[in-house]
Design goal:
single chain, 226 residues, alpha+beta, Peptide Deformylase, 5-stranded antiparallel beta sheet, 3-stranded antiparallel beta sheet, globular
C-alpha cells in the first residue's frame, strides 16, 4: 500500500507509514523500481521460497531493499512482486500515525505495527469476522483509490526472514494491510475488490470528498434505481 505525505489526512489505506524516513543503507533506495499496473508480474501468483533460499544473501538483500523502498515511497507494505521478484515475500511496517487523530485511529482500529517480513503466507479469515469497508490505494497504482471490503480479523501462518514459522493474529488496519499484501503475492490488486463506483483519483477525493465518511461517499456515488 502507499501514502503520500501531503495527503496524510485521508481515510484511504495507502498501506502507508506517512513518513519519509529512509533506512540507513540508502544505496538500496529506488522508488522508481516499483512496478506499475499493466506489468504481467503483478498478475501472476508468486512462487514459494525454500528454507535455504530465505537464508541466502540474495533474499536477505532483497528484504533490505524492499524495506528501504517501502519507507522511501512511503508505504506500510510492499510485496516482492512490486519490485519485479515473483516470490512469496512481503514487508510490512505501520508505526507513524501522527497524521491521524484519536477518533480516526479508533475508527480504523489502527495501532503500531513494527517492521516485519512475511514469507510463504497462508491467510485465514477468523470465524465471526465482520467485513469493513475503507479506502485503499497502492504504490503500483498511483494517484487512484477506492473503497475495498476486507475482513476485520485474520490469521496468517508464514515464515519470517530467519525461515522460522510465525502465526500472526491481526485485526483492524493491520488485518487490512496483510490482506492487501498477500493479495499481491497471488496476483490480485485492490482494484479487483474495489466497489467500482468509489474508484477515483486523489485529486477528486481532495476536491469533493475530503472530510466525508466512507458511508457518506458511497451513498452519493452508488445509485439504486429500485
Amino acid at each position: 500500500m502507499m501514502c503520500t505525505p501531503m495527503k496524510r489526512c485521508f481515510v484511504f489505506i495507502w498501506l502507508c507509514i506517512s513518513s519519509c524516513l529512509l533506512c540507513d543503507n540508502e544505496k538500496f533506495v529506488d522508488k522508481e523500481m516499483i512496478i506499475q499496473i499493466g506489468d504481467p508480474i503483478l498478475r501472476k501468483s508468486a512462487r514459494a521460497l525454500s528454507h535455504d533460499e530465505i537464508l541466502s544473501p540474495d533474499i536477505q538483500n532483497l528484504i533490505e531493499r524492499m524495506k528501504a523502498t517501502m519507507r522511501a515511497a512511503p508505504g506500510v507494505g510492499l510485496a516482492a512482486t512490486q519490485i519485479g521478484r515473483s516470490v512469496q515475500l512481503a514487508v510490512i511496517e505501520d508505526i507513524d500515525h501522527r497524521h491521524l487523530n484519536a477518533q480516526q485511529l479508533a475508527d480504523r482500529n489502527r495501532y503500531p505495527v513494527p517492521f516485519h517480513v512475511i514469507i510463504n503466507p497462508h491467510i485465514y479469515i477468523e470465524e465471526g469476522s465482520h467485513t469493513i469497508e475503507f479506502f485503499e490505494g497502492c504504490l503500483s497504482i498511483p494517484a487512484f483509490l477506492g473503497v475495498v471490503p476486507r475482513a476485520e480479523s485474520v490469521r496468517v501462518e508464514c515464515l519470517n526472514e530467519r525461515a522460522e514459522p510465525v502465526v500472526i493474529q491481526a485485526k483492524g488496519w493491520y488485518a487490512r494491510i496483510l490482506q492487501h499484501e498477500i493479495d499481491h503475492l497471488n496476483g490480485t490488486l485492490y482494484i479487483d475488490r474495489t466497489i467500482l463506483p468509489t474508484l477515483m483519483t486523489e485529486e477528486s477525493y481532495v476536491k469533493l470528498w475530503q472530510g466525508k465518511s466512507v458511508q457518506e461517499i458511497q451513498a452519493s456515488l452508488i445509485f439504486n434505481d429500485s
